[in-house]
Each structure stands twice: as C-alpha cells, then as structure tokens.
Amino acid sequence: MNLSLILPIYNEEKNLQKGVLDKVLNFAKDNKQIKEVLVVNDGSADKSQTVIKNQYLGKYKKLKLLNKEHSGKAYTVIAGIKAAKGDYVLFSDIDLATPIEEINNLLNEVGKGAQIVIGSRSSRRAGAPLFRKIMALGMIFMRSYFIGLKNIQDTQCGFKLFQKKAAIKIIDNLRVFKQAKKIKGSSVSAGFDLEFLYVAQRLGYNISEVPVVWRHVETKNVNFVKDSLESLLDILKIKYYCLTNKYDF
Q1: Which CATH number fits domain 3-243: 2.40.30.40, 3.20.20.370, 3.90.550.10, 3.20.20.80?
Q2: Residues 181, 69, 45, 95: is their CA dihedral positive or negative?
Q3: What is the pTM of this model?
C-alpha cells in the first residue's frame, strides 16, 4: 500500500508556527506506507504559503505544496484527492485535533477490506464549547432524518481515509459539491462529508468507522451562525437531489 496524506489549509500561519506540520512530516519521514504529504493551500490570505516554502519545502522530500483559488474546504480536499499519487488518501485537519499517529488505526481497517474509513470522536466532544456541541447534535438529527445516514455515528470528523479509486468515483457522482466557485471568507463545507458518505453508500462501498483520539482545538475558521446555515442549505440540496432521482447511478 502507498498512502497520500492530504492537509487542507486556509490562513493557518499561526498553526504552522506552532509546529504542527513538523509533527506530521516527522511522522511521515520514516513511514514507508506514506508516499507523500500534500499540503493544499486554499488561497490563504496570510503568510501560510510563505512559511511552507521558506521553512519546509526542500527540507522534507515527501512534502508537496498545491496552491489553488479560494473555494472552501470541500473543494480543497477534492483537489488534494485528485492530485494525490497514492493508491489511498487520508485527509487530516492541520490543527491535529486527532493526532497523526491515529493513522495506524485507520490503516488496520483497510487490511480488513474497507474502502472508506472514517475517524469517529466521542459523542461527548470533550472540551468543545457549547455551540460546537449544539452544531453536532443538529447535524446528527438532520443527517439521520433527512438523508438517511443513521448508521454512521460521526460524519464530520476531519480524519478520513479513502481508496483513491473509490474516492474519485464518489466525487464524480456528487451533485451539491460538483463545481468549485470562488468565495470570500472561510467555509468549512460540512455538507461535503454528508454528500460524500451518502454517495459512497449509494455506490455500495464498504465504510468502516473507527474510534480515534480527539481533543478540541479552537479555530477562527468556524462561524456558528454562518456554518450552520450553510450546512442546512447543503442538506436541503442533498434531499432535493434525492427526491428528484439525481443520485440514481
């Protein structure tokens, strides 16, 4: 097996200065299964790109940097999957709320035949502020009763592993997240995980959910009101495409 590790970033200069990328690259350096670490820069307006170029590129041979126009996290992950050279791809949030060492738990499931492996956090979300817990409960209700993802406990953990061939087929059959558009401000694109997993189920892929260590890390890229409304709109779009048979493939 060879694995591409994808790190989507948007204005992550402060996290980079804390050394989070060092942790990932030091872990990947001697791991023979990790083919590359692909940082996908979603048009950051801060010095994220400069920090990576000056401090990391050339120092770590597995590191690659992909710059793209700002269009939100969903399309950043999609761009990373398409550019990845590995047979399997794993994306992780750059804040490392789930420690990078948890990769090993997900890889164990691949050996059992899973094509999609998703990290699952404790339902208590230890350390998360109240508004994040409210968002999580709202997402559970909406995904369960609007689009039928009742058998997956945690669709939103930013730590997921895909067989690349399967991921590309899923992406090709997305409806809500089909075409990237230039945007302003941050977008966590929570609806992307829902549509991706819904389509994966429709296509009959084997999805495995694995408990992972998780700790809350504060981020400026999450806006309670904006992200909740964006997620609700995406869920309604998914439901509309379900009702109009756009997912019949």
Answers
A1: 3.90.550.10
A2: positive
A3: 0.89
